[in-house]
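User: Some background: our group keeps a shared notebook of sequences we're curious about, and every so often someone picks one and asks for a predicted structure to add to the entry. Today it's my turn. The entry only has the sequence so far, pasted here. Could you supply the structure so I can complete it?
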Amino acid sequence: MARTNNQNQAVDNRTISEKIATYLQLEAKKKELDTQIKALKESIEAGMNGASEVRENGFVARIECGTQRKFDTNKFKAEHLDIYEAYRHDVATKSFKAYVEG
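Assistant: Of course. Here's the predicted structure to add to the notebook entry:
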């Protein structure tokens, strides 16, 4: 028996809603894990007592410090708006959001 568009839409919506529910559950777990990872990282760094590397039971923790040279876009824009505008260009973007209504 052939399905009508409304029947197909209902099946598709149910499938999408199940996927969205799973996605939201995984995002929540990810946030929880990110919090745990951050706390563990901070605990490990504190336990290193300023050492740049610690080796224990086959595990290695290493902290590397350095400097980076950054370009101050805001200052450049304020001081050279004409040049700044000449080098700007549009870039296509895509954003995905899922949430529970209500």
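Suggested note for the entry: The helical segments are 5-47, 73-79, 81-87. The beta strands are 53-56, 59-62.
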